[in-house]
Request: fold
Amino acid sequence: MMNIADRKQATAAAEAQRWLESFETALSVQDAGAAAEMFIADGLWRDVLAFTWSIQTMAGRAAIESTLHETLPRTRPANFHIPAKRTPPRWVTRAGRENIETLFDFETAFGPANGVLRLLPDAQGRLRAWTLNTNLHELKGHEEEFKRRAEPDSTRDFGAENWSDRLARARTFSDHDPAVLVVGGGQAGLSIAARLHQLGVDTLIVDRHKRIGDNWRTRYHSLTLHNEVHVNHLPYLPFPPTFPVYIPKDKLANWFEFYVEAMELNFWTGTKLVKGGYDAKRREWSVTLRRSDGSECVIRPRHLIFATGVSSIPCTPTDIPGLADFAGGKVHSGDFKNAAQWKGRKAFVLGTGTSGHDVAQELQAHGADVTMIQRSKTYVVSLKEAQSVYAIYSEGIPFDDCDLLATSFPYPVLQRSYQISTAKGREVDKALLQGLEKRGFRLHFGEDDTGFQMMYLRRGGGYYFNVGCSDLIISGKVGLIQFADIDRFVADGARMRDGRIVPAELLVLATGYKNQQDTVRLYLGDEIADRIGPVWGFDDGGELRNMWRHTAQPGLWFTAGSLAQCRIFSRYLAIQIKALEAGLLS
Reply:
């Protein structure tokens, strides 16, 4: 006899299967209206390429019906089913609502797809879709390389190039141009290059640093990832189980170096983007690169991917009175090194985000007399509590299922989920937050109380995961000044509005980074930058602007974000580029 939990589980599976079968029936006869009626009135459908060939969310039955009506003839979806290999349908609570959550597979005219369905009862008790997510998983006939290897290659070509010779030659691009140029060799660049390589798309990564991984290796000494290792794998090659829970920057940098060799990626170090322009008639870019020896070359890829990340061009605010008068050392937090040299000396850190706190703590640990200057309210959460936003990866289900679930949340669901987790975090961290407020630290919990994750997605900063610096502020071991109380910077420190001088010999500018649109403006010019608009942050449809999808400039793409975001969404960016290269899209 089944217990209550087993009966509930069986009911979930039956109801989910019933909904999918009815949905497929409606789609098979292209009855978009009937299909839309299977959603609650304010239901949400997030599609990732499967129907729309974009990443977009449809809100409400009318929008769902309209998009289905437009896309069904070319998509021809069929064979909706719940695969045995997936986590079975189950009752879960998402964004405070109990629902039946189902992972499913289906087929499209372009290839296999998958998705996530969440069912809620309507006023009459009938189960309807609260959220639906559909994702194109791969292209039919253009599967990833490792899936196409039916037999091992046993040939031995004695007296000719070996594997190492061929790889070295390919990396020179001496006799041809790559189809894709990726600018930036961090997690974003490596992820998309690995995906494209497995799809047979000739790709070159260029990075200005001297060594692969230096975009992490050269940052401040104490830097360690703030989310746990099991969330952060790169495509195809997960971190070994021996890795620490929080990966130090140098270990991650070394892994990047290993990853490039293991995945046979084409990578030019010490190479800077100088300028670029697009030839609309030839449908290709003309990109000038400068190598470390000063030589320049021009390459003509069909696709240009900016993988320079959310943290690209350091931002130095122009509204800081007297900044040019300060005679001490000035450095952006991204370039800060060697805290030990400031032992026994006074230092300012301007900015109270994660980098600002970490640099201040590093300076204090090396014996500096450090004071933080707070310009704006800041969200603070304990490191342990911050991991709650990655709770899916701790549910004990397969890793690929976790990644699928991570793509499935439309903006309103994310917003409500983060409001709940932020409220919980505030309660757990109550003593910490009260201690900061007593010291005069101004707290912020997000524009709509959604906490750090939405702050990151909206503007890339404004928060701190406490790994000890908040405790130093509370105890007075790290000083605190409000920027509003400063009249101006002077040669030997900061003159306060009450006339006193607070001395300092170092000013670290933890003031964030410019938008990737500014990177485009710098290298590709105003016309293209204005055409594409801002990069990152949410658009009106609740999707990240210009990320992992077509932009207003043909052949120009963007990828950025956390290791998890880069791993997940590199798949969909690579599929779009492959579809264009294969002539499946115009």
